[in-house]
Amino acid sequence: MISIDAESPVPPYEQVRTTLAQQMADRTLPVGARLPTVRALAADLGIAVNTVARAYRELEAAGLVETRGRAGTFVSAAGNQRLALAQDAAAQYAETTRALGIDRAEALEIVSAALR
């Protein structure tokens, strides 16, 4: 499910967060799926409990998971909406740049700069 590269310059919590987020995006972890407990995942990965807890907090802040008290942490339906929101924003951007007479190459350069 998840592996941690101890040699990577990417912090372990970020490796956990990005792996889980990617699994949600590609539907390996579907909406409603229960994530392992923080303690269980930390033990499986051989990392500190606080490391996994931070990854879960960041996923929750992004709306990708929701914690239901003692029931656990689950993949949120809101996480699927993030792609739809991004697509809507992209469509609006494309419409705006066309109306302003900005060509495709320049519009892509603007987006690329904004994402840095």
UniProtKB/TrEMBL annotation:
Q: Identify the keywords attached in UniProt to this record, alphabetized.
A: DNA-binding, Transcription, Transcription regulation
Family matches, as Pfam families: GntR
> Record's PROSITE patterns?
HTH_GNTR
Under the heading InterPro entries, the entry gives: Tscrpt_reg_HTH_GntR, WH-like_DNA-bd_sf, WH_DNA-bd_sf
SUPFAM superfamilies assigned:
Winged helix' DNA-binding domain
The answer to whether keyword Coiled coil applies is: no
| Identification of the protein by name | DNA-binding transcriptional regulator YhcF (GntR family)
> Per its record, what are the GO molecular function terms?
DNA binding; DNA-binding transcription factor activity
Q: Which CDD domains is this protein grouped with? A: WHTH_GntR
